């Protein structure tokens, strides 16, 4: 097996622009507790709590006031619903926070509310997943992973194992439909396997990034095509963990009868990899709190260095999983 750990991509600056004129800044009025303490307030609109990755991201974001006591955090859990996230953003605007940080459940549908934030002169930092808006000035900065690259890396894991000419039937567990994590990973994977004439995606359905749905969908895949599936490509670890249970209950050996690759790098998946039940992890780094502090400081001082910052990530094989397991923080 010819796996390569991809060298960490140290905070890749893709594009540098200034923040939009007049946004945020030291003079911004914030919530009453904030104005008395003079702390800067970040309002964070989180997607939900659907996966181990998400829990790790939430913990990292909640560390912000400890990382830098000059910041206060207002946190909102959107419970996987865009309407809840929009409501949270409107509350942050009403409370006059200094920065709005949004981890958007899906890419589209943000133009109106982000225009409201811009009109209120509150800078918006997009975290993890991205948004698609007609006017790019609605977004001050983005920090997170390159999801398309993650999909490409997952496909390379499969190609490294089987070669481009192999005949493979692939089952795909998609993430939340319309999210950058789903769109980017699917695009990157599909583009990469275009060079492999006999790779076929015979099953593809969303498991909404959760363990329970991953198991449920995999059970259905196995019921209809259990004997045909050679590879499981899962857009995240949690769905793959659920699918591994389904594969075992079906009487097959995950990691042996079905080759498995997934994205994230949570501890549970590292354990399964170390036990030989999965084959490849494409890492997606959820520890975004420190980077959000750094970006927020730059935005508030009017000295934003990079409008887009991509996080560090690697690829892990079974051999590497055992070694790496004791170091995993989430
Ligand atoms: O947006 C990041 C993705 O969302 C992670 O891969 C997944 O686990 C989470 O739910």
From TrEMBL:
A family per Pfam: Peripla_BP_4
**Which Gene3D superfamilies does the UniProt record give?**
3.40.50.2300
Q: Which residues form a coiled coil?
A: none
Specify where it is mainly localized: other
Q: Which SUPFAM superfamilies match?
A: Periplasmic binding protein-like I
A cellular component term (GO) from this record?
cell envelope
InterPro entries for the chain: Peripla_BP_I (IPR028082), SBP_2_dom (IPR025997)
Q: What keywords is this UniProt entry annotated with?
A: Signal
Superkingdom of the source species:
Bacteria
Instruction: Give every Periplasmic binding protein domain span.
Output: 43-303
The answer to whether UniProt assigns keyword Mitochondrion to this entry is no
Signal peptide per UniProt: 1-21
Under the heading PROSITE patterns, the entry gives: PROKAR_LIPOPROTEIN
Q: Where in the cell is it found?
A: Cell envelope
The record's GO molecular-function terms, alphabetically, read:
carbohydrate binding
Report the sequence similarity comment from the record: Belongs to the bacterial solute-binding protein 2 family.
Q: What is this protein called?
A: ABC transporter periplasmic-binding protein YtfQ
Q: Which organism is it from?
A: Clostridium ragsdalei P11
> Which taxonomic lineage is given here?
Bacteria, Bacillati, Bacillota, Clostridia, Eubacteriales
């Amino acid at each position: 097996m010819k796996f390569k750990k991809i060298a960490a991509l140290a905070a890749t600056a893709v594009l540098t622009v200034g923040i939009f004129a007049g946004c945020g800044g030291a003079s911004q009025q914030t919530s009453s507790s904030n104005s008395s303490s003079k702390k800067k307030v970040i309002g964070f609109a989180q997607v939900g709590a659907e996966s181990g990755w998400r829990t790790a991201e939430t913990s990292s974001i909640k560390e912000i006031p400890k990382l830098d006591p000059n910041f206060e955090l207002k946190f909102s859990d959107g419970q996987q619903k865009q309407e809840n996230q929009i409501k949270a953003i409107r509350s942050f605007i009403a409370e006059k926070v200094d920065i709005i940080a949004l981890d958007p459940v899906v890419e589209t549908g943000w133009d109106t509310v982000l225009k409201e934030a811009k009109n209120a002169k509150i800078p918006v930092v997009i975290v993890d997943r991205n948004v698609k808006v007609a006017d790019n000035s609605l977004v001050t900065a983005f920090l997170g992973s390159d999801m398309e690259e993650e999909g490409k890396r997952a496909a390379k894991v499969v190609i490294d194992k089987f070669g481009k000419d192999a005949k493979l039937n692939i089952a795909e567990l998609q993430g939340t439909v319309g999210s950058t994590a789903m769109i980017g990973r699917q695009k990157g994977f599909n583009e990469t396997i275009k060079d492999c004439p006999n790779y076929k995606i015979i099953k593809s359905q969303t498991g909404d990034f959760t363990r329970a749905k991953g198991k449920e969908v995999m059970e259905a895949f196995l019921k209809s095509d259990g004997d045909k599936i050679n590879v499981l490509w899962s857009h995240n670890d949690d769905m793959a963990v659920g699918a591994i249970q389904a594969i075992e209950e079906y009487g097959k050996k995950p990691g042996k009868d079905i080759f498995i690759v997934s994205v994230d790098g949570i501890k549970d998946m590292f354990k399964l990899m170390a036990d030989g039940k999965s084959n490849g992890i494409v890492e997606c780094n959820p520890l975004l709190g420190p980077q959000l502090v750094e970006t927020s400081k730059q935005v508030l001082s009017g000295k934003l260095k990079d409008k887009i910052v991509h996080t560090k990530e690697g690829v892990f094989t079974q051999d590497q999983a055992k070694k790496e397991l004791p170091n995993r923080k989430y």
